Amino acid sequence: MESFEKVNSIIMQNLETLNSYVKTIRNKHGNTRLATELPTIEKYASVLDGNYCKFQLRINSLKMYVEVLEKAALEKDQEIMRLKAQKFDEYISGSRVTQPLLRSGITKQRERSYAQAAMASAKTSDIKTNHVVILAPRNADMPTYSDTTFKLFKTSVNHEMLKDSKISIQNKKMSTKARVVLTCASQEQCEALCEAVSDDKWIKAVIPKKKDPQVQILGIDESIPKDDVFKLILAQNKDMEEFAQCKFEANFEKMDRIGTKFVVAEVEPKLFKKLIEIGKVCVGYSSCPVKSRIRVVRCFKCNRFGHLKKNCRNETSCTSCGGNHDAKVCKNPVLKCSNCDWINTKRVQRKQEKVNSEHRADDYGCPQYLRMYKIVENQYNFG
Ligand SMILES: [Zn+2]
Ligand SMILES: [Zn+2]
Ligand SMILES: [Zn+2]
After folding, report:
1. What tens digit of pLDDT does each residue of 173-204 get?
2. What digits encode the pLDDT tens for the residues 64-89?
3. Of 26, 49, 174, 374, whose CA is between 20 and 30 Å from 7?
């Protein structure tokens, strides 16, 4: 645009010169002289006009060129986003699909990509499907500890009962407010435990309610308010009538880098199924991809899961090499995931095979990330 200003200023200067030329003639020589000079002035003006037109044409063609480049950049951006989403989906679905293949030996070692190798180390047994029961005092004012709660639980549910009902308690965690969190092998086992303590005077057992799942709708035109998205989905897509009464809480929206925005909404399982099944919905001026949104919280300071940087009390750990520095200043070319490295110290103690830790801590193929993903996924009710 520098040249635009330059040409513009030359034209303006010339116009000023012409103007002052006309003024001088009128002042010094009167209108008669001006009339004789008119052809010269007209000639001069037409040259200027011609230059200006040429200049406009050049500007227009440059504008078109910029538009073409912008369009190409946008297409590339969308392609990158699509590939990223595809790669991520492959990682996630791979945990279900690739496993049996690897176990039966169909997939050959040399054909294994990093993602598959990561999947292989995240063995199904490592990925806990959480079936939990929370034990708590019936009366919240009761001044008691989780130890007491657990003792009371044992009086209600003795080991004979566990044996007869084939209930396995896989994990026990003492929690705040005198609560105890028990992990069982299945939902049925959790229900059986709840049933067993239903008559207890002192304690109660509850299965935590699962949350409604979230969808992420991408590529929505920026002019569409998030609260109008559902109305548009219902009106602009076929076979949506039966979902009109469903819950659709658009609780978050964000502009993306390509000038559109995405909206995150908490929806009823029935509607979730429908949206994921159709994969794309018309919203306003565009057809928008729909994805399931499962957010694994990872700290940007220490890279561990489950808390945010602002609440972090751990030391800084490099996302790239796992060292005690910020990834921005990292000079170490070796990749090491601090989470997998930490798991490996445990695995060595237990004489278990190590997992691959030669990847960044923010890699979507990281076995620890996938494990967390499963845990978070398990907190939702997908219907
Ligand atoms: Zn942290
Ligand atoms: Zn580093
Ligand atoms: Zn890792």
Report:
1. 888 888 999 999 888 999 999 998 988 888 99
2. 888 888 888 888 877 776 676 666 55
3. 26
Ligand 2 centroid vs 365 CA: distance in angstroms? 19
Ligand index nearest the alpha carbon of residue 338: 3
> Phi and psi dihedrals of 249, rounded to 5?
-105, 105
C-alpha of residue 312 to centroid of ligand 3, in Å: 19
Quickly list H helices, the chain: 2-104, 114-121, 146-156, 159-164, 187-196, 229-236, 269-278, 338-349, 367-377
For ligand 3, the distance from its centroid to the CA atom of residue 366, given in whole angstroms, is 4
Cα gap 314→300, rounded to integer Å? 11
Alpha-helical runs (H) found in 200-285: 229-236, 269-278
d(CA 118, CA 112): 10
Q: What's the gap in Å between 206 CA and the centre of ligand 3? A: 34
**The residue to which tokens 């969808």 are assigned:** 215
Calpha distance 304→260 (Å, rounded): 31
Ligand 2 centroid to Cα of residue 326, in Å, is 7
Rounded distance from Cα 229 to ligand 1 centre (Å): 35
CA distance 194 to 204: 8
Among 290, 95, 126, 130, CA closest to 210 = 130
Q: How far is CA 61 from CA 50, 55, 72, in A?
A: 17, 10, 17
